[in-house]
Task: structure prediction
Amino acid sequence: MCRIEKSHLTDDVLSYLVEHQDAQDTLEGIVEWWLVERRIVEQTSTIREVLNEMVADGLVRARREHDARTLYSINHEKIEEIAARLKSRPDHSPHD
Result:
């Protein structure tokens, strides 16, 4: 593992402990709960931006539910365009 990755992980664990000073867990718990939770929180705004862009491009549809949550789904009219776009990516594999 490179030094930068270790440094980020160190910062993530220490940040979690500062925010949750009574926390204690096993290795598995730290990986599964602490670090995954931090990644989810950090990436939520980025994912929101990506979804908004895909909606604006017409690739994804957004539908507001009665509880104010938004459901996202593929725009079936754009399936061929989406498939071609994915296929043209050199780093794309079916399990990305």
